[in-house]
């Protein structure tokens, strides 16, 4: 039985967590810091993922990662199967062993930004814990919104540069390589250029709204960016509104039946892991070892 004193203590804990998280963001903290603080206060494990379950930050022990995997909540690419976990509208969550997994949407201004996944190994998640997680999701939404605004500006600049590279008007090889290095990109190596786009609706399907199309494109682009970064942070990738262009490195021996077949297949499989919709990828071999 929960007494008034217990309820007051829980509210104080939730308020203290909210204040601590807000302070972290104001001091320049990221999702990793938020996850670590939530895990410290509530115990057990916390993950932030994209809307389709790609891990973005976590404070999760190896034993809890194993618990998720053995419960069928992680696919072969490492994506968390968020579609199998009930959201906060579900009062039960998902049982895993003697514990429970709960998931909350991270939302701002009606825009779905991601998922907060909380893993407890030994006991059910309480209502008080859910209220604390709701505060954490709200703070995370503010942080993600701020980061997305910065990323949009950077992405536009990077996309313009990459387009100029393809058109041969970005400058000489030395300048291109140096400028790319400023983005953290490696262009002085053999690559395959992959152009991927979401397939249009079939003739018997309804035309989607512009807002829905933009949301799908943003999710598609984010998936390519994250999967590519996980493979190699120096892989260039850019969103050109209707397509995503990625320059995947070709390693020695990856040439059957064509150069880069293995790396392209690996990345395409990972991007398609959430079955978020059909897409087409075109591939061209290239060598960007300039200078």
Automatic annotation (TrEMBL):
State the Pfam families in the record. Answer: GGDEF_2
CdaR GGDEF-like domain span = 175-283
Which organism is this protein's natural source? metagenome
What's the protein here called?
A: CdaR GGDEF-like domain-containing protein
């Amino acid at each position: 039985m929960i007494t008034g004193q217990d309820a007051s203590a829980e509210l104080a804990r939730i308020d203290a967590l909210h204040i601590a998280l807000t302070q972290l963001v104001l001091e320049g903290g990221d999702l990793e810091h938020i996850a670590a603080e939530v895990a410290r206060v509530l115990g057990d494990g916390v993950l932030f993922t994209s809307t389709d379950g790609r891990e973005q930050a976590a404070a999760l022990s190896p034993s809890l990662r194993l618990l998720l995997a053995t419960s069928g909540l992680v696919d072969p690419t490492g994506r968390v199967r968020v579609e199998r976990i009930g959201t906060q509208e579900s009062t039960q969550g998902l049982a895993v062993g003697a514990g429970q997994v709960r998931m909350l949407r991270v939302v701002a201004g009606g825009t779905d930004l991601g998922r907060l996944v909380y893993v407890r190994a030994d006991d059910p998640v309480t209502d008080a814990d859910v209220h604390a997680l709701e505060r954490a999701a709200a703070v995370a939404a503010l942080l993600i919104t701020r980061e997305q605004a910065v990323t949009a500006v950077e992405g536009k600049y990077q996309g313009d540069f990459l387009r100029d590279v393809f058109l041969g008007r970005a400058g000489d090889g030395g300048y291109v390589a140096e400028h790319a290095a400023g983005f953290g990109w490696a262009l002085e190596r053999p690559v395959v250029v992959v152009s991927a786009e979401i397939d249009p609706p079939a003739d018997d399907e309804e035309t989607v709204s512009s807002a829905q199309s933009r949301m799908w494109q943003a999710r598609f682009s984010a998936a390519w960016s994250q999967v590519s970064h996980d493979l190699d942070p120096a892989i260039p990738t850019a969103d050109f509104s209707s397509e995503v262009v990625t320059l995947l490195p070709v390693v020695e021996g990856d040439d059957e039946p064509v150069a880069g077949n293995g790396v392209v297949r690996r990345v395409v499989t990972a991007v398609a892991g959430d079955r978020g919709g059909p897409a087409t990828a075109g591939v061209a071999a290239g060598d960007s070892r300039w200078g």
